Records
---
Amino acid sequence: MGNHYYKVMIVDDELLIRQGILHYINWQEEGFQIIGEASNGKEALAMIASEQPDIIITDIVMPVMNGMAFIQHVKEQYPTIEFIVLSSFADFDYVRATFKSGVVDYILKPKLDAVTLLEALHRVTDSIEKETKTPSNKATIDLKQTLKKLINHYQIDEDIGTLDAQFLDPQFILVEERRHFPNKDQEKGVALSDDATKVILIEDDEQQSLYLINTTPEAIKAISQRAKEMAHVSYLISDAFTSLEQLHTRFQADIQLLRQAYFYLSNQTVLTKDRLPERKIYASMFDLNIFLLLFKQNKLTEATAYLDTHLEQIQADYLYDANELKNFLGNALFNVTIALTALKKETKTLEHKKYQYFNAINHATTFDAAVDHFYRFIGEVRAIVDETKPQPSNNMAQLLNYIDTHYDQSLTLTELADAFHFNPSYLSSYFSNHHNQGFSDYLTSVRINKAKQLLTDSDLSIADIGSMVGYGDHSYFCKVFKKQTDFSPSKYRKVQ
């Protein structure tokens, strides 16, 4: 039986770009087949029915039919085709809007090379394979496609009443599960299944899954309660509704709004519209020129403090456009690099890495992650600006000593940062760069080492020991202890 090749179409009005993509990699060797090229969306649409591509690589700004309109047309007629979007920095805001249409990935044209292209292609094929390997029969697949169309407000062939009749219980909710550590071996949808008659996975990727749940009002309360108890997961839950006719409305009014809020409130376990905190509307008072002036005067601490005030105000306005925040951080990043060059600092390494930081900020799914990437960049800037290069050992020793003497409290990175007048994101980067462990890993190791000592040298109960080393939750203490030592606390005590 012959090899399976994923069929790829290239759409770009620039011939040189198309030719470059064609020659970047050995397509067949990597498992792909180029089945066509087009110079605009209209030309590409005419080819799709006969060529049936699996993946389309498309520019966003093109004559006749631009990439945005092209993607929307294709997704309406061929929802299984996946897209990789090409963009320049200038049209980056435009590109972000395409993700709402189901684009899997994008590539910045200045960074387009063989490695970047292959990485994007493999992310797309992983998504395709995950979709095709999900165990389901044809009826379930058809229903899932219909639900996707309803969510996107597309026309469907089925009667809504007939669709509703396939579900036994009176109410529906949409639930989006957000996994904080997607690389961990986590079972999906654990909090959702026990109390639901029917759970349908509508959208799924590494970090999040969107479910339609058919259930009863009583069970909805149970689902919400159980979701609160889950570790390393957040749930975005829509208002209940009684017909699939309301699916698009609930998705737009609830899930889309909660997605905006989650970006800033990712520490919340459950987000519903009626449980959102008070929103404080952000009125921009930030002056980039002041920030850059402080920076040029080598007052980096004052500059970051000025920036922190601005960022805290944005976070309090949790419906502030996440793309605006990312644009702001990206703009500051590029301006700082330009200012460094003007100050005659050596920036060769940073010039290369700034694109990595820019990309990481734009891929960030939470406010904390975006700001953390920015402050990692600032950490590198600080090393360049500080020409006297003072040894960090004294600061580091004080940080470690503070943790060693406060491990028994509910110590957080934010509390440690406050104690030493650091920005939390910068402290996280500083700690990792100047110690062989991150803050959380070091705190855990201190606590577990102390617990091991108490288990060996005392007759205290395991619950008391857990509490004494900073774990108020007995079951969580046991879970962390076993992960660190491969023993439960009781077994560890027995073998000593």
---
Amino acid sequence: MVYLKQFNFPNEIDEHRIMSNLDPRRPRNSTYPLGLFSSKDFTSMVFDPITIIYGGNGSGKTTLLNIVSSKIGALRKNRVNLGVYFEDYVALTKFEMSFERPLEIKFISSDDVFDNILDIKAINAGINRNKEFLVREYIENKYNFKETDITNYESVKAQIEPRNKTATQFVRDRLLNESILEHSNGESALMYWEQEIKENSIYILDEPENSLSAANQIKLARFIEDSSRFYNCQFIISTHSPFLLALSEHIYDLDTIPVATHKWSDLENMRLYYDFFKQHENEFVD
């Protein structure tokens, strides 16, 4: 599904107009994002169901996603300071949508994933403290008989329950979110993506492979592909992951001037990987 069809960036003349019309009292120590894309003769994007943005650090991948997400009104968890010229720049961009409207438009960054992992760790710390308390409660109620008011259901239950369960069963039943403890950082990150991505929507993802192992990157790539093919989602993704790069036939390479689209297998880094593995192919045993 393609909801967002095309996006146009300001050219050099438009950017000069921004500079000319600004209040002279505004700080000019940084003109970001002016010149970032016009200097690469990059003024227009056409989108596929899965559109990939590729480039090295400083090439403008995240900036591009921030511009697009701001213009089309994407929801995001964390607001960031994007500079004094950012809103003026975004105001001059244009986009075209299809007649179909997405249920939601969401920007998800790798920082959002890390924040979620930290939240889980904080929850886990609380759960671990609670586990110690529950183990003490289990031992006390299982082995220390107390006279209990039989009309008090909770008191009776507290004494009977430990006698019918092992300590592990008792603690797990009390900790309804125990499953949080059973996942690594990478698994938690993958679960986060799966929870955030719904059907019939646009998702703008900034380097979603961060904190994921190669195996989990493959799982994420399959999930994104299935969400696009079967659940009418559109994705705009910045990535270095070969597993995600392979999802799209046309990849916008921000390292080239002018910016051009390439097949994933023609990208410089992918060719370096290919050459390296070709040199060492005899070391791989089937």
---
Amino acid sequence: MACSIGLVCDIGVGPGAGGRDRNEDNFLVCDSGEIWYRVDDQDQRLQQDGEGVLLVVCDGMGGHTDGHVASTAAVRVMAKLYQPGAPKRVARVLQNYVMESHRALHRAARRDGPVSMGTTLTAAWVVGHHCAWLQVGDSRLYLARDQQLFRLTADQTRNEFARRDGRPISPRGDHLAQNFIFGSRGLGDDLSLRLDKGLDCGTEPLQKGDGLLLCSDGISGVLADEEMAEIVASSADPQSAVEGLRARALERGSTDNVTALLVRFDDLPQQGESADWLDDPEETVQF
């Protein structure tokens, strides 16, 4: 599997311009025998054989003093998923590791006393010619294909879950700051966690030349999907694309941390080389 990777992950405008005083975002890239993430904004690169390409973006929960601790802990747990040999139930295994990240953060928060930690987590694991994906929170996943962006995830706001459950819509329910309230929409906030198949987790077949874009709301919170698609389509390579997204987001007044991870699949295995994708995630998982 041959791919090209572009990444930006930084503080954004910083506190001097009304932004965050530290970078609470994090990422995980596992590809070609290497695991890559950050600890305190320092790159960590570990050699480890593994299956496929694993991508994660985490956004430490806004207003939570230990959001950076949570996002780092989450990517470290997810990195354990990158092992040799494709499991037969790829989507289910991905789901299980996200749940383990959630439980680990919950245990840490209870053990360490006066800490306040939580994080979003959006993951995509490409094995063969398929992608298993999962989202908790509002960090988004897009499929880039034929000069277009197709959003695979739905921001988990109060109103999103109210719509799904047939409850009344609140005038303030689409504010992303509220998306950790109902059912703990960030990992580690409390022990409850809900994932609805096809909306919060699923699988997607890929084609040669496709791309996957994962980003925090420092990007998607200020840029429309159409504008993001134009930037990605007009960029020469994934790194130019994510740098363009960052620049445009800051122009639009983003005061949040900024993370964008774009991977373009220049080649994919033949159909027969894929893992068994017949097992989709559970219809609904509630912890």
---
Amino acid sequence: MKTDNILPMKDLKIFGIYKNGQFTIPEEQVTALKNGKMTDVVELKNLKGKDMEIESLPARLSIVKGEDGLPALRIDPVYREPNSHPKLSMEERQKLIRSELANLRKSYVDNNGNVQTEIIEYDQDTRQFMSYNPRAVKAPEAVDGQTLSPEQKKKFREGEKVQLEDGTEFQLHTSSKSGLRSNRSGLVLSVILDGGISYLLITGLKTMLGKKSEVEQSYSKGYQDGIREVQKQIERRIASNPRDKDAIRDMNVVRQELSKLVPNQSIHYKRMDYDDAKRFNSIDTEEGRNPKLNQERDENRQRRI
């Protein structure tokens, strides 16, 4: 995977995030940018420009669509005090700041006279209010193997809590690095990419607001099956390109999650490194072990890997 095709490298170089052929922020923060999420607070140093020189600037980073339609770097600095928002009353501001509410939905009339909606969140890390357009959000087709109804997709896009039949709860949370809140420690999302289904393993989830109990540590069958689907996708990527560092990193996350599924059994989590990837080939994938079976399965499910 070429970083240049995903990230605005010119912007990253200007702000010292990419220097001398390598990133100056931790790898997990780079991963967040690649996945379309916000980073944690990072420190940008020695920023210089016209009539501007900043020795150090703590901020969160994200990638947005620029005016030209291409990826652009967004920098959200950490404020000393919570900033204001023109559409929020003082009471609403305080409820968001105190985490009494996860978000607020606001409607307004745009310059063309059309009624628009935005969802407003408060980011505790930068002390600022952030908003998003729910119509720009693409909801997953399924979560942990459970297909979402049109109503559940609508709730997801608008920042409402979605509950599945097995008790799993989740909620869009754009200002967090994972992008989600949940009462589970991990979720597998089924999403449509280029007309086919792909699987995304999301870990490090924020907890749901108003939940005094700890995160549910049980793993549903749908979650377990989903992790194995993610594993198959990554196996194909590594077999195709053993130098794919992103795939190796993703495989290590999957292996760590798999080791949690059967804690009473002697399954040892072994981290994959570059040498392991070089030895990995098509025979190590499920397709390599049973190509006919998996070819039929792919044709039936019509999913993209």
